[in-house]
Amino acid sequence: MTLRHAAPFLALLIAGAATAQQAKAPARHDSNAPVDFDADHMEVHDLEHRAFLTGNVRAVQQDMTLTADRVTANYTGSMANSGPSGGGSPQVHRMDATGHVVVTRPTEVAHGDYGIYDLDKRLVTLIGKVTLDRTGPNASTVRGGRLVINLNTNQATMDGGAVGGNGSTGKGGRVSGRFTVPQKNDNSATPAAKPAGK
């Protein structure tokens, strides 16, 4: 699958990085942690080193959860050799998700049509009708065609285009969204000047 850049990037710093609240940002995600999964059905093609998970798929790694209708996991090793008498669990390198893909982290939820978690590169990519909602003091909503989350740097990048230029929810293939604004207390307003002579 080839990704093409269809619009300039909008860099978004996760959880308030580069702000005064950077010290409160969550710890970096541990991409070496095991991935626990469950699904309605699993089909293993051990010679191809692929496992197909279908139906209410849920994969959890540390504090990040990926849900989708279907996930294809590419691994090394062998499922047949895992277990008490085998050579250990297979090692997953990439997961491709389709259908109602949702990635949830402590301060954000991202939705898309397709998802790729490249465990070797520590990159999570969502493609097609992507929405990223952030909570907390830096709450915001951003929409576009493709989102890439770098788990090494804790940085996200959104652009307006998707594969082949389709699947964008930004206006005219652009990134769109809304930032919240800190609300000022009405009592802090400067009092009106008194009329002359009073």
TrEMBL record:
GO biological process, one term: lipopolysaccharide transport
Keywords noted in UniProt: Signal
GO cellular component terms listed in the entry, alphabetical order: cell outer membrane; outer membrane-bounded periplasmic space
Gene Ontology terms for molecular function: glycolipid transfer activity
Domain (Organic solvent tolerance-like N-terminal) ranges: 38-154
InterPro entries: LPS_export_LptA, OstA-like_N
Region annotated Disordered, chain positions: 159-198
Tree of life domain: Bacteria
Feature: compositional bias, Gly residues: 161-175
Signal peptide as annotated in the record: 1-20
PANTHER family, alphabetized: LIPOPOLYSACCHARIDE EXPORT SYSTEM PROTEIN LPTA
Protein name: LptA/OstA family protein
Origin species: Sphingomonas chungangi
